[in-house]
Amino acid sequence: MNEISEKPCWRHSPGWMKLLLIVSLSVTVAVVGLVGGNAIRHWNGESYNSETINEPGLDRRQSRVLRMVPDAQKDQARMILLARQDEYDAARETMMAAQKAFIEAIRQDPLDTEKLATALTERRMASSQVWNIGYEQLAEIAGLLNATERAEMANQLEERTKRWMDRQERKGQ
Q: Is-above-0.90 flag for pTM?
């Protein structure tokens, strides 16, 4: 016999070995597909989409609101958002400082419950101020829109809320 016929080959392998190889390759392809699909979904998500570049002078939340406004009213809506930008930024800075104070109060040993309660109250108040400004601006922008445009904005807000709720539910599982 020559050397070629003495070497083991695929045709002479036992059936269970062929099956094991096929299953192994299938699992590998499935895992690569899941990881690749997740990566593609992540990188194509809203935070990485070229449309989601923040408007000059606005943060990501304000920019999202502005993207919901029809083009004809964008300039007016931008002016509404920018009109209270100093107040909004100050409230956000206060909120972040209160958050840091809250974290530091938690770290203290022994725990000073009075300082912790004060920091928590300040954090809640600052957060409330940021949200109130945002909701007031959103209401003012809604006042610029006609019924159809408001309905479309409401649908977009509802969809965003649903996606947020779904994400929170997935995180909890």
A: no
